[in-house]
Amino acid sequence: MKFVKWIGIPLVMIVIIALIAYKVGTAYVSDQVAKQVYDSLEENGELHSIMDEVKRNPKLEELLSEVETVDDSTLPFSTKEEATKVLMKRFTVDEILNIQSRVSDGISIEDEEELVRTFEEKLTEEELLALKVIALKEYQK
Prior knowledge:
By secondary structure, the chain is mainly alpha-helical. It has one domain. It is 83% helix and 0% strand. It has helices at 2-43, 46-56, 58-68, 80-90, 93-104, 109-122, 125-140. The radius of gyration is 19 Å and the shape is elongated. The chain crosses the membrane at residues 6-25.
C-alpha cells in the first residue's frame, strides 16, 4: 500500500502538471503564431493589400457572407487554440513550414488552388468552415 502512495501520488501530480502545461502551451503557441503573422504582414505593408484584395475578390466576399451566417455552436471548434490543436494533428511540422514559406513569399493562383486542395484533403467540411469563421473573427478585429 505504501508503494502505491509513493508511486501513485507523484505520478498523478505529474500527469496533472503535464495537462496544465499542454493547455497553457497550446494557447500560448496559437497566440504567438497569430501575433507573428499579423506583425509580419503589418511590417511588410502586406496587411492593407490583403484587406484590399478581400474587398476586390468576389469569391472572398461570398465566402465572408457565407461564414457570417454560421452558428458557432455547431462547429467542431471555435477558438484559435482549438484550431491549432486540430491543425497540429492533421499536418506535419514540415507541411506547416512549407505552407508558411510559400505564403510568405506571395502566392500564385496555382499555389492557392493547391493549398485549398491540401486543406480539403486533410480537414472535414465542418473543420474548414470553423477555420473560416475564426479567420473572419481575426480579420474583423
